[in-house]
């Protein structure tokens, strides 16, 4: 497996996310870090789309028929859905609605698992540099 810069960057943001998870009581650390990581995750596919030749890989080399690419895609969609619910629960906590804490905590754990799987499946999809 070739370790691309994009994977290293994603892994670094994952370490930061774990820190923000454990230090959730420090709201001024937790909220901006989590919100920034969500924004990064939102724009990451756009960055990858602009910097890779997806037509060649997906269509010409028929990678669109592989299980891994679909698994990766579905995990990303699941992550976005979890983010949506986590933002709603987080905003409720900020408004002082303590009932949202349980949902926010369990969704938080699900986000950590899903994001780890997104990064792992993404790492497995990295194309090693071509050797001439
Ligand atoms: C923009 C998004 C988010 C907002 C606005 C937000 C907001 C908050 C707030 C206000 C608290 C309460 C802190 C306190 O106790 O004073 C909290 C706790 C927490 N957050 Fe978030 N959060 C966000 C994203 C996330 C994400 C992505 C995760 C997980 C990966 C997460 C995991 C947690 C956990 C585990 C707690 C502690 C819950 C508990 O007390 O049991 N949050 N969050």
Summarize the structure in words.
Helix 1 runs antiparallel to helix 5 (100-125) and helix 2 runs antiparallel to helix 4 (67-94). This protein has 5 helices and no strands. It is an all-alpha fold. It has one domain (5-125). Helices cover 79% and strands 0% of the residues. It starts with a helix and ends in a 7-residue tail after the last helix. Bound molecules: protoporphyrin IX containing FE (HEM). Protoporphyrin IX containing FE binds at residues 17, 21, 24-25, 27, 30-31, 34-35, 86-87, 90-91, 93-94, 101, 104-105, 108, 111-112.
Write the layout of secondary structure elements.
Layout: H1 5-22, H2 27-51, H3 54-60, H4 67-94, H5 100-125
Helix pairs in contact: 1-2, 1-5, 2-4, 4-5
The structure holds protoporphyrin IX containing FE (HEM).
Protoporphyrin IX containing FE is lined by residues 17, 21, 24-25, 27, 30-31, 34-35, 86-87, 90-91, 93-94, 101, 104-105, 108, 111-112.
Largest sheet: none
List unreliable stretches of 5+ residues: none
The secondary-structure element order is HHHHH
Q: Would you count the extended β strands for me?
A: 0
The count of helical stretches stands at 5
Class by alpha and beta content: mainly alpha
- The percent range for helix content is over 70%
Radius of gyration: 17 Å
- What is the end-to-end distance? 19 Å
Query: Strand-residue fraction?
Result: under 5%
Bound molecules: protoporphyrin IX containing FE
Number of domains: 1
Q: Could you tell me the mean pLDDT?
A: 95
Gross morphology is elongated
